[in-house]
Amino acid sequence: MATPESVIEIGSTGVRLLVAEITSDHKKNILDRSDLPLHLGRDVFTSSTISQETQNQLVQILQRFREQLAGWGISPAETYCFASTAFRDAKNCDPVMDRILVQTGFRVHIADGIEENKLMYLAVSNCIQDQPVDFKNDDTVILVVGGSTTEIMMMSGGKMAGVHSLRLGTIRIEQHMKSLFSSYDNIRRFVQEAINNTKGSLETELNLSNVKQFIAVGQDVTLAAIQVGRPVSTFLWEIELEDFESFVKEIQKYSVNEIVARYKISFSEAETLQVSLLIYDMFLHLTKAQKIIVPETDVRQGYLVSITSTQNEVLKNEFNEQVIASAKNLLRKYHGDEAHAECVRMIATKIYDTLKNEIALGEQARLLLEISAILHDIGVFIRNDNHNLHSWYIIKNSELFGLNRNENTIVAEIAKYHKGSIMPQDNENFLMMPRPDRMTILKLTAILRIADALDRGHIQQFSDFSIKITPTSLEIHTKKSKNPVLERLALSEKSGMFESVFGYKVVLI
Fold first, then answer.
1. Which of 82, 86, 97, 145 is 20 to 30 Å from 55 by CA-CA measure?
2. Contacts for 426 with CB less than 8 Å, ≥ 6 apart
3. 152/327 Cα distance (integer angstroms)
């Protein structure tokens, strides 16, 4: 029997535990789960801190979960425990994390919105596989409404077009509207304005009016599916547009207590149901989808899928393709030179693969190099002079699917140093970064500089070449006889960092 895997999510409205067994064929069997309410988000959005009372409740819940996990032979150290946006936004999150570690043994990882998007994508993909849901052809929106944020993923032709973590959550809206008479019309207008303010930005990546497939995830929309939808399979539902609209309007008529009584849900779930369904409904009406697809899944299951994806080559490659598609779409948004980016990416990965054993970085490093190669010149959109600095700014302030905040920073730093004579070691901020991150940036930047030099003229004339390693040099043998004067000049300017990092002189033959 496989060792059970466990994951705990500390959200804005509750703390949730999932225990599952991963089988030899990468399937998961749910063994245990718990879901306990906690008003953490309300604390943070009103006072910017997690109150003493909420801390005590959180510790008690985690101590209970620790006992529950002990029954499965799982220790806190073996459990992935992550907290979402509300926890991260608390000014006292660090001491609370320390208290949790000391009193319960759970080490809390703070996940940002894009990281949650990654896990949710994996969960949804896993849930709809082998189902009649057309990811590959129809433009698709995947929407998850939470207590603190609304996560949105947009796909075109089966490829990721954009991801966003919008500060539009049920608890956040509740706190904004608390000073007003929170009538249905007031809340609707507030939500409508927030969505209108983000619509323009979203449509630079995907025309929402062309979206035919709308996938909604979350407890609230699952409740709607159970009430007015129809099951497609065991964990997949669909709701016709008219039926969902009618249910959203009907639910607005009830008080919180009436919702608890009618739908047999907890008070904390009932408090946010009306606003949550309203957000889904308004986003749905930006598209031309005629039904909602509702996978019965969550980010905790996404984490379990991510464990199997490291062992499943097909799933891993498919996910990496979505990350690359997201980067290409960002480049396209800023009118970048896609042919040059693809050429540099090809050269960089060829050098990386040749030196793989000597590079000695984690598996994710190759993907970070590919993303850096695609985006290194994106800053030309602002200005050609010092475009590396503009590239750093754009990447740093963009949301790239599949990359967490730290990985996004690494890609931005690589883009910053891909040109010029400045070395990363000359920057105090670079020296303050963890050593593994510094080494990743140095090695990948050194490779990117060589790859960029070999397409100096942006004409892709050295697309066919081979690489040979000698004791003292990295020889690049071109297979077509063309005048390489520009590339030789560029190599003489940009190869110093490579020679310093890897100890090889770069020779173009």
1. 145
2. none
3. 16
* CB contact at 8 A, 138 and 160: no
Taken as a whole, the chain contains a residue count of 509
The model's pTM:
0.83
Identity (one letter) of the amino acid at 106? F
Helix (H, G, I), strand (E, B) or coil at 216: strand
Which tokens sit at 187? 């809340």
Cβ atoms of residues 197 and 186 within 8 Å: no
Place of tokens 């946010």: 272
pLDDT in tens, 440-491: 999 999 999 999 999 887 777 777 788 999 999 999 888 765 677 788 888 8
- When the pLDDT of each residue in the chain is averaged and rounded to a whole number, the result is 89
The percentage of residues in the chain with a pLDDT greater than 90, rounded to a whole number, is 60
Strands (E), 23-66: 28-37
Query: Helices H, strands E: what count in the chain?
Result: 22, 15
SS3 assignment, position 487: helix
Within 334-434, residue ranges assigned H as helices are 338-354, 356-359, 364-375, 387-396, 405-416, 428-431
